[in-house]
């Protein structure tokens, strides 16, 4: 018996969309045709509705994350599932999702000991999106959502209550990293004193997380009055402009605001040796330091070992705010919808896909908390 004719066979045509591509280190991004393949087993295609312009995308462009150019940038996103591959059961077409870049495996030693937020074997889509000439693209953080559609692993899609994509999509990276640094990693609670050093998007999110947890006082430290005002709007009770202060003077100011003791929780949202040391010495005895700002590989830290021993407490790093997307994203969207978490305050401007390069410049000048690309 003859098989089906060619005309009867289903023919799939890969989807072509416009995407923001970094082709070489330090060069301006380009808007290029991107080929999105049909989803394979365990994969999902998402119609992207928003994508925040994050420092991590800029680091990709500058070669600070790797040298696997060209990169399809974008990762801080929300949208709707449009297609699913074989074996996908977690989501279905039409679901509203926030994308995450840590799809937990459920099988590694961290997952098996009940700490999936530390998953050591997170994964992305197996297939690569490509340029029109077949050149494979490295998707930023395994997402690549400065594009009208993107291909991700099933576990990178987190279903949340339907809401404003430009707002809740920010939970996909910076806002979650900051809130999680305060609440998950730092364990902020009611009445705990908190200092946040560095008040960009992640630092301001740490302030918002500390406020959500009932911490007080919440001390914001930065050298830019505009950023300090953002922090105050998001919950800081005290601010310190560090522009003309030495490291020791910043520490002394924090102590003055906490009865001479220092804070219970100090968050470094910058990631420099100098700011980490400020956080270390600005905390009370047995206090906690959380590093959420990302250092560069060449940075070195020198602290007398006796100071680490004698001050006690905990020295931690926040990985993606130690979040579990399935647990944290829906809860934070609910808090936003209830008016208890002002996520909309993080959206400084809504822009088009052609405006990403200028958004990087505005971010570098400290003019925005977040520029967000919005798709119709």
UniProtKB/TrEMBL annotation:
<keyword id="KW-0862">Zinc</keyword>
<feature type="domain" description="Enoyl reductase (ER)">
    <location>
        <begin position="26"/>
        <end position="373"/>
    </location>
</feature>
<dbReference type="InterPro" id="IPR013154">
    <property type="entry name" value="ADH-like_N"/>
</dbReference>
<protein>
    <submittedName>
        <fullName>S-(Hydroxymethyl)mycothiol dehydrogenase</fullName>
        <ecNumber>1.1.1.306</ecNumber>
    </submittedName>
</protein>
<dbReference type="InterPro" id="IPR017816">
    <property type="entry name" value="MycoS_dep_FDH"/>
</dbReference>
<dbReference type="GO" id="GO:0008270">
    <property type="term" value="F:zinc ion binding"/>
</dbReference>
<comment type="similarity">
    <text>Belongs to the zinc-containing alcohol dehydrogenase family.</text>
</comment>
<dbReference type="Pfam" id="PF08240">
    <property type="entry name" value="ADH_N"/>
</dbReference>
<dbReference type="InterPro" id="IPR011032">
    <property type="entry name" value="GroES-like_sf"/>
</dbReference>
<dbReference type="Pfam" id="PF00107">
    <property type="entry name" value="ADH_zinc_N"/>
</dbReference>
<dbReference type="InterPro" id="IPR013149">
    <property type="entry name" value="ADH-like_C"/>
</dbReference>
<dbReference type="InterPro" id="IPR002328">
    <property type="entry name" value="ADH_Zn_CS"/>
</dbReference>
<dbReference type="GO" id="GO:0050607">
    <property type="term" value="F:mycothiol-dependent formaldehyde dehydrogenase activity"/>
</dbReference>
<keyword id="KW-0479">Metal-binding</keyword>
<keyword id="KW-0560">Oxidoreductase</keyword>
<dbReference type="InterPro" id="IPR020843">
    <property type="entry name" value="ER"/>
</dbReference>
<dbReference type="InterPro" id="IPR036291">
    <property type="entry name" value="NAD(P)-bd_dom_sf"/>
</dbReference>
């Amino acid at each position: 018996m003859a098989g089906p004719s060619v005309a009867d066979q289903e023919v799939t045509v890969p989807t072509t969309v416009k995407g923001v591509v970094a082709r070489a280190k330090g060069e301006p991004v380009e808007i290029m045709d991107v080929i999105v393949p049909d989803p394979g087993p365990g994969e999902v295609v998402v119609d992207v509705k928003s994508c925040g312009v994050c420092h991590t995308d800029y680091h990709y462009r500058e070669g600070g994350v790797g040298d696997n150019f060209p990169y399809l940038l974008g990762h801080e996103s929300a949208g709707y599932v449009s297609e699913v591959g074989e074996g996908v059961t977690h989501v279905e077409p039409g679901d509203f999702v926030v994308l995450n870049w840590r799809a937990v495996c459920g099988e590694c030693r961290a997952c098996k000991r009940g700490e999936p937020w530390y998953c050591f074997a997170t994964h992305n889509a197996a297939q690569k999106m490509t340029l029109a000439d077949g050149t494979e693209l490295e998707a930023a953080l395994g997402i690549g959502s400065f594009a009208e559609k993107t291909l991700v692993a099933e576990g990178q899609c987190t279903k949340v209550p339907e809401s404003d994509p430009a707002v809740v999509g920010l939970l996909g990276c910076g806002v979650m990293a900051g809130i999680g640094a305060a609440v998950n990693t730092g364990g902020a609670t009611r009445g705990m004193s908190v200092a946040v050093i560095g008040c960009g998007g992640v630092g301001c999110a740490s302030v918002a997380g500390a406020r959500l947890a009932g911490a007080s006082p919440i001390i914001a430290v930065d050298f830019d009055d505009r950023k300090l005002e953002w922090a105050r709007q998001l919950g800081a009770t005290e601010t310190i402009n560090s522009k003309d202060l030495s490291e020791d003077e910043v520490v002394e100011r924090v102590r003055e605001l906490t009865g001479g003791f220092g804070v219970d929780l100090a968050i470094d949202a910058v990631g420099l040796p100098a700011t980490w040391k400020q956080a270390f010495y600005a905390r009370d005895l047995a206090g906690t330091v959380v590093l959420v700002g990302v250092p560069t590989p060449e940075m070195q830290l020198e602290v007398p070992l006796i100071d680490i021993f004698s001050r006690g407490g905990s020295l931690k790093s926040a990985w993606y705010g130690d979040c579990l997307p399935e647990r944290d994203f829906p809860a934070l969207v609910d808090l936003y919808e209830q008016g208890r978490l002002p996520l909309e305050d993080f959206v400084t401007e809504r822009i088009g896909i052609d405006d990403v390069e200028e958004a990087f410049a505005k971010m570098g000048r400290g003019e925005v908390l977040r520029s967000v690309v919005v798709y119709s």
